[in-house]
Design goal:
- It is a single chain.
- The protein has 161 residues and is an alpha+beta fold.
- It has one domain.
- Helices cover 22% and strands 28% of the residues.
- The protein contains five helices and six strands.
- The chain has a six-stranded antiparallel β-barrel with strand order 1-2-5-4-6-3.
- The longest helix has 14 residues, at 32-45.
- It is globular and about 55 Å long.
Length: 161
């Protein structure tokens, strides 16, 4: 059985909806504490008041590359719903090294439009060596509570990205 890496990102939601109606992107974070703090600051800054029926939360999701759907997630498709989002990736990773958050897009074309395709390097970039290859890739979201049941048998515990 092949072993894979399933990065975990934290998404904010209202009433268990990650992408609000009419939105085509959302933000996600590597660290839950940072996600909670940023979300609270956002709500306070815009003076957003909750209605009695609004439930806000920050939930962790593991990302499964879209090409692994049939191998890993398809057997569970009848029991669970999985959402697919697209990311601007750096060398295949959905979040750039040295950053704490990224955007996730509902549509492939939106993520692809943000991929940097320039070939000329800035002066400071020449000193860094080769830049990461950017691409737009789709990932299926698997809630953290389903990790043990679905993903653990497929994960490589020694890969660190």
């Amino acid at each position: 059985m092949a072993k894979y890496w399933f990065p975990k990102l934290y998404f904010t939601s209202e009433n268990k909806i990650i992408l609000q109606p009419g939105a085509n992107k959302t933000q996600c974070w590597l660290n839950k504490d940072v996600a909670v703090k940023t979300y609270a600051e956002f709500l306070a800054h815009f003076n957003i008041q909750d209605s009695p029926t609004t439930v806000r939360s920050v939930d962790g999701f593991h990302l499964v590359a879209e090409e692994l759907y049939s191998e890993i997630l398809a057997p569970y498709a009848g029991r669970y719903k999985f959402r697919k989002l697209y990311f601007k990736c750096y060398d295949g990773a959905p979040i750039a090294p040295g950053t704490q958050f990224t955007d996730a897009y509902q549509f492939y074309d939106d993520a692809k439009a943000r991929v940097d395709t320039r070939t000329d390097l800035y002066e400071w970039e020449r000193k860094l060596g080769p830049l990461p290859v950017q691409s737009a890739q789709g990932f299926w979201l698997v809630h953290e509570r389903l990790y043990e049941e679905i993903l653990k048998p497929f994960e490589n515990p020694f890969e660190d990205r």
